[in-house]
Design a protein that fits this description.
It is a single chain. By secondary structure, the chain is an alpha/beta fold. It has one domain: Spore Coat Polysaccharide Biosynthesis Protein SpsA, Chain A, CATH 3.90.550.10. It is built from 7 helices and 9 strands, in the order βββαβαβαβαββααβα. Strands 5-4-1-6-8-7-9 form a 7-stranded mixed β-sheet, with helices on both faces. The longest helix is centred in the C-terminal third of the chain and has 14 residues. The protein is globular, with a radius of gyration of 16 Å.
Amino acid sequence: MTGAAWGAIVLAGGSSRRWGGLDKTAATFAGRPVLLHAVAAVLPGAAALVVVAPAEHPARSQVELAANGARCALAWVREDPPGGGPAAGLAAGLTALDALDPLDPLNAVDPGRRIEQAVVLAGDLVFAGSAVPRLLAALALPDADADIHADIDAAVGLDPGGRRQPLLAAYHVPALRGRLAGLVTNVSMRSILAGLRVAEVAVTAQEAFDLYTPRSLTEAESGAGREAGWP
């Protein structure tokens, strides 16, 4: 894995329709807000973190405390328009990431030290931490003799069902920024990946487990959580 500084974007601005309008990333899992688990997947490690979520998110103060403890520069932003989908969230996240100095947790701006690689996670991925190092390693492989070539734009999780997980992935920031330029806000993540050179990285069902419905939270607490070693 490269020693270069890398950033992270955690997307938690969805409408949670299947949760009856409740914010699933504010729900409690294993004694902590769901969003905090997604943030913990990249801390420590990330030099800069952008959370795309409502400003009044209940877990915001805890996220800020965690980032401060990890000496990670942090920005908290909202997609435009609010609820505009993952493409809008990524666009807002990339803009904020460009303005963060990875070497200064006080967020001094230095364009000469922009982050070139970023992990992108959905805010309801509570078991993603073990996948992050593999995604970054795949993105940074040095030569064509490796299993995955270095000339890729994204390393995307591939779950056991053969489905790509674009919100469990690592991206080269310039390539992702270029792909998002000019796209409409409600474009699908599948469409975004279609214009990128993608390496697929196998992830486990646990790592890709998201809180699709309230029942998923119960499943995570009762079975998936214990198997993954959570309290």
